[in-house]
Design goal:
Blueprint lengths: L1 E5 L1 E3 L2 E6 L1 H7 L7 E7 L2 E12 L5 E4 L2 H7 L6 E8 L13 H8 L2 H9 L2 H13 L3 H15 L4 E3 L2 E3 L4
Antiparallel strand pairs: 1-7, 2-3, 3-6, 4-5, 4-7, 5-6, 8-9
Helix pairs in contact: 4-6
């Protein structure tokens, strides 16, 4: 699918509005985040995998990461050509595996394991992505302690939010 759009801004997030008509031609009656591959003005060479977010009226927001805007040399206010297609290779669920050190800690802490299993998949995915970026043993240890504390019900800050009663 190819169409023209204008890069707008919503809060601090640059996006292109994708009409309900265009969204329907990509994937009929889709109501959740829609996985697509996208190129803006023919860039980047390898299309980006992005989830378009539903606007609630059948249309979608195609949020543009900085890397996509940089590759296409575009900014807010620019009129662009959008090449968009459904990402048939998309697989839902966490992109990162549960680290062994976290799995072991959960297995020995029933309240934390129960809270982990009760988290919405997007929150689990966020935590696993965060853990995957940790490099040093000290960072892993420090963040494992924080995660186990908040999942066990302690009120504390972890991954930029305040947790209460395990969520």
């Amino acid at each position: 699918m190819r169409f023209r759009g204008v890069i707008k801004i919503r809060g601090i997030n640059p996006y292109i509005h994708v009409s309900a008509r265009i969204a329907q031609s990509l994937k009929r009656d889709w109501r959740k985040p829609l996985p697509v591959v996208v190129r803006i003005n023919g860039e980047p060479n390898e299309p980006w995998h992005i989830n378009m977010m539903p606007a609630g009226d059948g249309s979608f927001y195609l949020y543009l990461r900085g890397t996509v805007r940089k590759a296409s040399k575009t900014t807010v206010g620019d009129r662009v050509v959008v090449d968009l297609s459904f990402d048939s290779e998309y697989r839902s669920g966490p992109a990162h595996r549960l680290p062994g050190w976290f799995r072991t800690a959960l297995a020995s802490n029933a309240p934390a394991k129960k809270a982990w299993n009760a988290l919405v998949p997007s929150r689990q995915k966020e935590i696993l992505r965060y853990f995957a970026a940790l490099k040093s043993p000290a960072a892993k240890s420090r963040n494992l302690k924080r995660a186990m504390d908040v999942l066990s019900g302690s009120e504390a800050r972890f991954i930029a939010r305040t947790w209460k009663e395990g969520n």
